[in-house]
Structures are given as C-alpha cells and as structure tokens.
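Sequence in, structure out.
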Amino acid sequence: MATPCPFLPSSARRYSWRDLAEFRENQGAELYQRCLEYGQQLWLDHLPARALLAVDRALYCDIPAEAAILKKWPLPYQAIAWLVSQPTEHFTGNARVHYQHLADRVRGERADIKKWRAWAAWAVVRKARPDLSSDPRHKVIEPTHREILQGLKSFGLPEEPTWWEKSIG
C-alpha cells in the first residue's frame, strides 16, 4: 500500500478520466478538486506519472482567488514536490523535462499563467530531485527564481507566490 500524499485530498468515490471530461466547459474549482482527488487515487494505485498529470490538470484550472477549496488545498506545488521525491520504481520519464517542455510549448487561453505555473513546477522538481537533468536537445532559456516569482505575481493568484516558495523551501 502506497502512502497517501499529504498535500492531496482523498475521495470516497473512485474516478476515471471520464469523470474529468464532464468539466470541459467549466475549468474551475469543482474540476480542481476532482483533479486533486483523482491524482491521489492514481498515486495510491501506483500510477505516479498519471497522478502527476492529474495534478498538472488541477494546476491549470481557472479558480477564483476566493474559492474555498484553495484554503484547504492550495495550488499543488507542495504535492508536486512530494510526489516526485517519493521512492518508486513506477515513475516513468523525467518530471523536470516534462515541465521544461510544457512551459516552453503552452499556447492558447491563459497561456501566460500556464507557462509560469509550468516553470514554477519545473523549479519545484529541480529542488526536490536535483538528480534529474534537463533536456539538452530542447534549447530554451530557463528562467531564474526571480523571473518565475515575477511571472506568478503578474499572472497568478494573490497567494500563489507564497505557496510556490513554500514548496521549494
């Protein structure tokens, strides 16, 4: 039995990806909570890479700053740090490369905040797993701590810089 992530809620109900699809038009607080719960479920089912993808989906939800869910479950930067730092042979891929590519390629609606959240998650992974290397074939200018912080301040939720900085110590 896997240890539950202390930064993700659990649900009495079992979910599948289909349970996220019903929120296609409403990417707000309800989807956010469901993604976090689904991430916990996937983690406990020994599917860490899929759990991280569910948490990513939560990170990109469009949640108002006053949403009650954020008081109990702030944006999942600490969950990302915890998930990638757990010993498991089930993780596939490199989370640092994942966020590096995601940050550089995000497009469309709310692209600015999605980009800065991906870079923030990238920085979390770099801190939690310094053994993970970047993708040398992906030519991108990696932002500094200060630049990520400014991006979160400019485009994110009011408490977001604090949540992020708490996750990287």
